[in-house]
Amino acid sequence: MNKNQQWLADKMGLPKQRISDIVNLKADNITIQRAALIAYHLECGVDDLWKWGWR
Question: Can you give the pTM of this predicted structure?
Fold first, then answer.
């Protein structure tokens, strides 16, 4: 199955634009619960949703 933004939006019951905002880092208030749900649907860990940069 091809998992795209529309697929994720449908699974989460959100508008595609909201998913697009999250993906493009335009959403600055994503909750841990929402992140966990995204990770669940994408079959990955919550930590996999962010690129961590340590200095």
Answer: 0.80
